[in-house]
Specification:
Length: 405
């Protein structure tokens, strides 16, 4: 599938515009907020009302009251401050202020995905990825909720972008600095960001000479160090930060919600992807499973695609193995790469089938129509599960209940 460059760019812009329109169109259709969303809102209000003292009061309550440990820790200062800023700028004091943060981050992710695709991927893969990203039930759900996962997704995709540029041979300090900033910001928003940071860091270090690796490590350590220093000052000291952060896994192991809705056999996480976005899930197998010699483009691009494959697989594996992590939100940094790799699988299948049919233009048109129709089905699946049925989360138990309803 080839398109003239101007038409291709217009199509990319149209699909990004579609992603923006769908996120804005569904922003106000949440009928009930989750307890976590209420907690982020209350923490942001405490900051707005009392500043640092309000945050310290939240910390004291979190450490003294076991019931509060079932909810997000007040050490996620980056998210708290973003929600507080949204409240201040918009005048909203409800959970919708946090949803503004999520929606803005999701829109930024759609734009960043387009840039990443245009830079490194063949046109059929990019158009497929942007179409299904626009209607993605996971991303549309997160974009309307006051959760930190959309910002983490955006920062994770930023780190992937930096890693891709370095894989492609760019050694400019800009990419080291961008990666360090995204890593540090992610640490302040949600603790699990350490997973995409670590995976991307290993990816990048495999591409560098030892001197370049030392520079990369120095920038990353500095970025994370600044983030930890800022967090420590915000929550009452480094010892307080470490005590709360290290206690989160134990609190999660006793969390009634996690035990009920995010537990089970690890493969159920893959079942969740199949339930909410089946066609990209199928094509991702072609994107993940092809041999290097069959990858389009240069050997550099082949290596980049392999590294991205490893990134997606490792995030999925961690979520499948960690206790009570069967929630698609927890692999949000993999969403953009997942759709790009699914697009790559689609490009391979499409190219081979078209060759068998002798390059038929009618075949290409039929494929485009089918993809658009299936994207519409994905969007209606989002509306049915998360709007009409008001499913509150992306935890696997909720998704399985929807599958067998």
């Amino acid at each position: 599938m080839t398109l003239p460059t101007p038409l291709y760019r217009i199509a990319v812009l149209a699909l990004v515009a579609l992603a923006i329109a769908l996120r804005l169109a569904n922003f106000n259709n949440v009928t009930a907020r989750t307890p976590d969303e209420h907690v982020y809102t209350q923490q942001a209000k405490a900051w707005l009302s009392n500043g640092h003292a309000g945050l310290l009061a939240n910390m004291a309550d979190y450490e003294s009251n076991p019931a509060t440990r079932q909810y997000p820790a007040p050490t996620r200062v980056g998210m708290i401050r973003l929600v507080a800023a949204a409240m201040k700028w918009t005048g909203r004091g409800d959970d919708g202020a946090g949803a503004i943060v999520s929606c803005a981050a999701s829109i930024a992710s759609a734009a960043l995905l387009a840039l990443l695709g245009l830079r490194f991927f063949p046109p059929p893969a990019v158009l497929f990825a942007l179409l299904f990203n626009a209607v993605s039930p996971m991303q549309l759900t997160m974009a309307r909720r006051a959760w930190p996962d959309s910002p983490v997704e955006m920062l994770g995709l930023t780190m992937v972008y930096a890693a891709c540029e370095i894989s492609a041979g760019s050694r400019r300090l800009l990419w080291y600095i961008l990666f360090a900033i995204a890593a540090g910001a992610g640490i302040t928003i949600k603790e699990y960001t350490i997973l995409p940071i670590g995976i991307c860091a290993l990816w990048i270090l495999c591409e560098l000479t030892w001197r370049e690796a030392l520079a990369m490590i120095a920038f990353t350590v500095a970025g994370i160090g600044v983030a930890v220093w800022w967090l420590s000052g915000s929550v009452g000291g480094l010892s307080e930060l470490i005590r709360v952060a290290t206690a989160i896994p134990a609190a999660n192991a006793k969390n009634a919600y996690a035990l009920e809705y995010a537990s089970g056999s690890g493969y159920l996480l893959l079942a969740g992807l199949w339930i909410v976005t089946p066609v990209p899930a199928v094509f991702s197998l072609a994107g993940l499973g092809s041999r290097r010699s069959r990858l389009p483009g240069s050997s550099t691009e082949a290596r980049l695609f392999q590294r991205m494959t490893i990134f997606v697989l490792l995030l999925l594996i961690f979520a499948m193995l960690l206790p009570h992590w069967l929630n698609l939100r927890y692999v949000a940094p993999a969403f953009g790469p997942f759709y790009l790799l699914a697009g790559l699988g689609f490009a391979r299948v499409f190219t081979r089938c078209r060759a068998w049919l002798g390059g038929s233009g009618l075949f290409a048109l039929a494929v485009i129509v089918l993809l658009v129709l299936d994207a519409g089905v994905d969007y209606m699946r989002f509306r049915g599960i998360f709007v009409d049925d008001a499913t509150p989360d992306l935890s696997i138990k909720f998704l399985l209940d929807e599958r067998f309803r």
